[in-house]
Write a structure and sequence with these properties.
The protein is an alpha+beta fold. It has helices spanning about 5-25, 30-40, 45-50, 55-65, 95-110; strands at about 75, 80-85, 115-120, 125-130. The protein contains 5 helices and 4 strands, in the order ααααββαββ. A hairpin with an 8-residue loop joins β3 and β4. The protein is globular, with a radius of gyration of 15 Å.
């Protein structure tokens, strides 16, 4: 997988954010990730226009990981996909913030709360990203407000 164009695109994103973390510091990382995630999402407005949350997650998966991640699978009120060879893994032990980067971008693209249930950096065999609950309603584009906000 490391020789695919998708892996190299993701690896370029990793190098960019690694430089950002070194240059601006960890304290600014979360705000910067959110800002850039919003910019990336604005480049793909068609994703949020999809009425099927599973289709939104699949489209977001393709933007972030291309073909280097398993297809989205939905079962019992949750949709998920996994990455077995994450481009963030080599730097993640030193810069755990990079693990939040993919989740933040996916969340911005999907327009729902994307959670991570498995992490390669924690010793899991893969990184798994999940959308569940209200996000899987069949209603077109539920509100983006999150509980408690």
């Amino acid at each position: 997988m490391r020789n695919t164009p998708d892996y190299h695109r993701s690896a370029g994103l990793v190098r960019f954010y690694h430089a950002l973390l070194i240059g601006r510091g960890r304290d600014d990382a979360e705000d910067e990730f959110a800002r850039v995630a919003g910019q990336i999402a604005s480049m793909y407005p068609e994703i949020r226009s999809l009425t099927d949350p599973a289709a939104r997650l699949e489209a977001a998966r393709r933007v972030v990981y291309g073909t280097d991640a398993a297809a989205v699978v939905c079962l019992e009120g949750r949709c998920q996909f996994s990455v077995h060879d994450c481009p963030f893994a080599p730097l993640a032990p030193e810069f755990l913030e990079l693990c939040a980067l993919a989740r933040t971008v996916l969340d911005a693209l999907v327009g729902e709360g994307v959670e991570q249930s498995e992490w390669i950096v924690r010793g899991d065999p893969r990184c798994t990203f999940v959308v569940e609950g209200r996000a899987l309603d069949t209603n077109p584009m539920p509100t983006l407000a999150r509980p408690g906000t």
